[in-house]
Amino acid sequence: MNIQMPRINQIPFFFKKQNLLIQCGIIFFIIIILITLIGPFIVPNDPFTANMSERLSPPSSVYPLGTDHMGRCIFSRLIVGAQSTLGITALVVVTVALIGIPIGLVIGYIGGRLDTVFMRLADGILALPEFILAIAIAGFLGPSLTNLMISIVFVKWIAYTRVVRSIVISERNKDYVLAAKVGGSSSWKIIRRHMFPQVVSPVLVLATLDIGKVILTISSLSYLGLGAQPPAPEWGAMLNDGRPYFQSAPELMIYPGLAIFFVVLAFNLMGEGLRDKWDVKSR
Amino acid sequence: MFTIIKNRVIQLIVVLFILSLFTFTLMKMAPGDPVLTILNADEMVVTEEDQAELRNKLGFDQPLYIQYGRWMLNLMQFDLGKSYMTGKPVVEELLTRLPITAELTFFALTLMLCITVPLGVWSAKYVNRWPDQFSRILALVGASIPSFWLGLILIYFFAFKLGVLPSSGIGSYPQIILPAFTLGFTYAVIYARLLRAGLLQSLSEDYVYAARARGVKEWRILWLHAFRAAILPVLTIFGLSLGSFLGGAVVVEILFSWPGLGSLAIDAILNRDYPVIQGYVLLTGVFVVLANLIVDLSYYVIDPRMKRKEEAL
């Protein structure tokens, strides 16, 4: 493994003196994870209970950030929304990695015609920007969160496959692989023992930087009405919900937007930190 | 020069072929029966015979590969069928919306360059001093802010609070500023970082030292010598991201009620108007591939070394 696991006598990476911005990113990240995990148990109100007599009320002791156009607690919805937004994103990124990495390992290692065909196919799909592809898929299959996730996975795996493939191609002819072959390792074992560890850190960096992008895509598409459908407390959908009350109650839009911004910022800072640490060249 | 054009055209055809297969498959996978959609649009009683007749007329009773062949033939004659919503030909619908999106994109690009170039040069000139840190933070913000939210905040301040700029509508220059800025800002600050990196690299090249030794003025070195080399990577990334620019335009168009291609696409999706969605996807694909081609060719104009490299091969 070329990732250095923190040893006892070694200071873990996130406590070392880092760039100030990256430290902020790590702190944000820890806070976000905590909120996501324990948030739903500590929210003051039920995020789905509508209370029409309390609609659009200002912040109070009951409703820390006030209520939305249906009289639902904005604060509670934001906290629970963190779980849905981040949960969806995590699911998407993990699925993408699970599809992209094995395919990249195999076509990179085998190469030849398989590789050519794949690259042509990838060029064809990548001619369309991922956002437009996602729109196309959501458009043909109908707007829903599941279709949105399918479309993002469909577009994203190619990037992972490409990164993995290029690393494998640059590694597969090196002497140590030859030595392993001479030593009687099967292709499967070489891929598993020698190729896979090489791709872990670049993929981790790519994934961390991608989390931000995926969050932005999901919330943009939800904002367009192509993703999470109301009354789900997804941040983009909340923004879409609040659109008609824009002039009278701008806070309906400001809070979810800020939430998206800070979470994406945290992941971008983390991703940059990891990239610098592992010295992974951006593609 | 001709080889590269030839290769690129072949690539363009392959890409378009895959794209057409992709949209055709998606269209066939789409839920709902287009025959019923068309018939129900007239609000008549639909009989079995009507359905069978229309199915026959549209060729939906044929095997899939024949349907694809027919569809492809029509496509080559720029016939994408008719919109379910309006009954007008899809190509006509797309062509009426295209100039509107083109206008938005053009202004956004102009605005983007007006931010990218000075910001990039400025931060390269004062590396690691405050202009550089400032542009670094801007780039982080640009990469993290949801563009629709940025647009909403801009509308809130400039249209509602200050009342200086209109929040929607098209036709006059003030109306373009907010949407163009929303679309261009994210890309502008990120490209500024790329430009900075490129400038820093080319400023440490030998020919820059040589120019300095000859006593060429510093601004000439920066703008004429270093800038020319540094703009190349920015151009590449720009060509590659023109597609996401068009994707971003969808959000901005919805936000500012700008009746361009993006609005058309979203309307079509919400009304399940599949021919229009298909037309939109194909058209965007063509644009992206063409943009990449233009970027490739512009290399030869900006950097003559590329031409020599190819001739040497």
Describe this entry's structure for a reader.
The complex is a heterodimer of chains A (283) and B (313). Helices cover 69% and strands 0% of the residues of chain A. Chain A has nine helices and no strands. In chain A, helix 1 (20-42) packs across helix 9. Chain A starts with 19 loop residues before the first helix and ends in a 5-residue tail after the last helix. Chain B has 13 helices and no strands. The interface between A and B is large, with 44 and 50 residues.
Short description:
Chain A has 283 residues and is mainly alpha-helical.
Low-confidence blocks of residues of chain A: 5-12
Major pleated sheet of chain A = none
What profile does the largest beta sheet of chain B have? none
Q: Calculate the mean pLDDT score of chain A and round it.
A: 78
Q: What is the helical fraction of chain B, as a range of percent?
A: over 70%
Task: Summarize the topology.
The complex is a heterodimer of chains A (283) and B (313).
Chain A: H1 20-42, H2 74-110, H3 112-126, H4 130-141, H5 145-171, H6 175-182, H7 187-223, H8 235-242, H9 251-278
Chain B: H1 2-29, H2 34-41, H3 48-58, H4 64-76, H5 90-125, H6 130-144, H7 147-161, H8 173-203, H9 206-213, H10 218-255, H11 261-270, H12 274-302, H13 304-312
Helix pairs in contact in B: 1-12, 5-6, 5-8, 5-10, 5-12, 6-8, 7-8, 7-10, 8-10, 9-10, 10-11, 10-12, 11-12, 12-13
Task: List key phrases describing it.
heterodimer, A: 283 residues, mainly alpha, 9 helices, B: 313 residues, 0% strand, flat
